[in-house]
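User: what does the whole thing look like in 3D?
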Amino acid sequence: MFNLIRMNLFRMIHTKGVIVVFILLMGFSVISGCISAYDSIEMAKEIKEQREAGEEEGVRELSKQKEEEIKQKAAMEEAAKKEAEDNKEDNAAYEAGYEFGEQVSGSVGIYVNTPVDSNGNLKDYVFVYCSELSGGFLLLFILIGAVLFFRGDEKDGFLKNIAGQTKYRHNIFFARLIAVGIYTFACMVCYMFVEYFAFKIGFIMDGSINFGIKYLPEAIKIFALQYLLHMAFISGLLLITEVSRSTAAGLTIGLLGVMGFGMLFARIIQKVFHTDFDLNKYYINTNISHVNMGAAHNTIISALGIGIVFFILYNVLNVLWFSRRDII
Amino acid sequence: MEYVLSTKNLCKQYSKHLAVDNVSLHIKRGEIYGFIGRNGAGKTTFMKMVCGLAMPTGGEIELFDAKGSDVNMHRARVGNLIEAPGIFPNMNGINNIKCKCYALGIYKKGYAEHLLETVGLKDASRKKVKKYSLGMKQRLGIAMALVGGPDLLILDEPINGLDPQGIAEVRDMILKLRSERNMTIMISSHILEELYKIADTFGIINNGKLVQELSREELSAKCSDYIEIIVNDSARACTNIEKLGFSDYKVMEDGSIHIYKELDRLGEINRELVISGCIVNSIKVVQENLENYFLQLTGGVQGV
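Assistant: Here's the predicted 3D structure for the full assembly of 632 residues, as structure tokens:
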């Protein structure tokens, strides 16, 4: 097993597609970090100027445009805030007074909210990072690399060399899965450090950003849960890729899933069967969007359950399929 | 242990299509086994089942004296090159070999280089595989199959698409592996004459069924030249043939007589038959080759 994991990691660092996706992700993190940093600086400046100009009650009345933005944001986050307020004691974000952003569920697309305080300042990086994890951007990149890697050895025929000579074929599957897990972890961690560094660069001219060490326990909890959910989502895609024997199928379904197209299916079910049952709540990507700093206890537990169930289910099905099928 | 590999009524069914139909095949230790069959005859499917890449739907495989689920424990001793070589085009030759070495837990320094030297790719070891010629890829595929020093090597069409020089190189390599490492090799090919040059035993498969399994000597006998005589009275002709001292002859189902030795006495046989009152409709030396014999067994030229 260790040998197979080592082989897969060796293969991974020599797989062009995976490396390209990783570099693009790191590039994206730099750009994202810099843009967020400058946006934040601009926003804080604007607020300051408006306040100095004598406008009333800060952010809400800065300008009509700002007011609209905040109203929209408030509407989107209302439910989450209510839940968060119910869990004040466990809620690091609430205590910190941040306007943490929960991603928009119920619409198609990818959204990331930048958590800012009432002055438009972006202080602690862990909030930004967790918000981005829940936004699905990282998942989008990671899934492309994972699917390309997972089928790479079969596509090039390399699997024929080892599938017969390995005592237990399921070990090949687990070694691939562990390699994907390491890749996912590496992407998530490297993204964090690269983006934090980018933020630092972005703030060089005007202030700096704190990492948020005091919120680290909460952030680690969110990171671990997001990691589980990301792996569960990717496991589902790997199952689709494996059964369909098509990288394109896995990628397409993955991209549509991240963008929330599953919600349309949930709505169809509601309309066809005239039921209030919301399938959307059980989607992994919906749960990814709900898990953020300051998320309610119930949200965390529900996401944890869904992550574990789907991770196990997808991988059990995949290992059964992989162990019994013919290698082409 | 007499046989390295033997199968008993091995079957593989894909929905309604029976790709391999009750094949019972035997490969002795240290021999080169030539596996002959037209396209779609079931060669690759059979080889995949032996290598553990495809699951049989019936029958059993005995590998290194192990049966049933114990066979999996011995599959590490089977190297294979099935269809096209399974290699990563964006890696160089040495990294491809290393990749398989890691999978099998081989971390010996210089091992990959040694294998590439064995197949004559030492100078191209750092070159990306996508820049290799077809022959180089095939040789790298064989090197991959040799990782771990297998006792049984299964090569499916290893000389497919190679030029005459490449074919000769692969042939020499296979003979060298057998002589130096006492490796048992199962090899399939469409180039029957090439297979004939290296194989000790031949298995002919057609429509999923093993039509014949015969040694090199038996095949040589079947594919040798012979005198074919067509007369009006076979019995009388046989009496006269025996009088001339011929014992190695056969009377075929259609009444023709085949004599396998002393082909230069054709004129003498003809004279004797005429004198004895036989009407000789035809007497000639027939040149039988491997291809004709193969076609005869597999039912004609279609699909070959």
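In plain terms: The first helix of chain B runs from residue 43 to 51. The mean pLDDT of chain B is 84.
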